Amino acid sequence: MKPLDHDGICIEIPGEPVPWKRTGGSGSKRFTNPRYGAWKSNARTLMMVGSRGISPADFPVWVKITVIRKRAKKSKTPGRAWDDRQKGDLDNFCKAVLDSGNGILFDDDQRVVILEASAVLAASDFDDPRIIVSVGRAHSLPFSCPNNPEG
């Protein structure tokens, strides 16, 4: 396998973004939220396919995460495009992406020394929600992914 190059890689995870959730349960009986578990499994598969032939980074990396949320059909606040009922803080979406990338994009998420994150609305009702992840060597500047509204 070859190491991550200077330009980095870009991976798109289609579908409604799902934030990280703490495992539930008590004592030795633990469980993962099924919706989060399914999203994480899909994200890991897409990361494996998108990073094929690249070994997990064992050096400092930058990560750029763009969370694209669907536009609100109805909002509690008139004139507001963001759906008040959509759950998930930006930091929990980042945790979900970084957790999914462990062992695939980098050997451990402690390798992430620069993190740039944003949450934006889909450009239209026809634009699909998704998460776009870019990863590269920390000594190079983050690059823009195609189809990323944030650049």
Q: Which secondary structure elements does this structure contain, and how are they paired or packed?
A:
Elements (H helix, E strand, L loop, with lengths): L8 E6 L9 E3 L2 E3 L2 H17 L10 E9 L20 H12 L10 E10 L8 E8 L14
Parallel strand pairs: 4-5
Antiparallel strand pairs: 1-6, 2-3, 4-6
Helix pairs in contact: 1-2
Rg calculated over all Cα atoms: 16 Å
Q: What's the rounded overall pLDDT mean?
A: 82
- The amount of helix comes to 10-25%
Give unreliable regions as ranges: none
CATH level-two architecture: 2-Layer Sandwich
Number of helices in the DSSP assignment: 2
Order of helices and strands: EEEHEHEE
CATH homolog superfamily: Holliday junction resolvase RusA
Notes on the structure:
- The structure is a single chain.
- The protein has two helices and six strands, in the order βββαβαββ.
- The radius of gyration is 16 Å and the shape is globular.
- α2 links the parallel β4 and β5.
- It has a single domain, classed as Holliday junction resolvase RusA (60s Ribosomal Protein L30, Chain: A, 2-Layer Sandwich).
- α1 crosses α2.
- The mean pLDDT is 82.
- It starts with 8 loop residues before the first strand and ends in a 14-residue tail after the last strand.
- The strands form two sheets. The protein has a four-stranded mixed β-sheet with strand order 1-6-4-5, covered by helices on one side.
- The chain has 151 residues and is an alpha+beta fold.
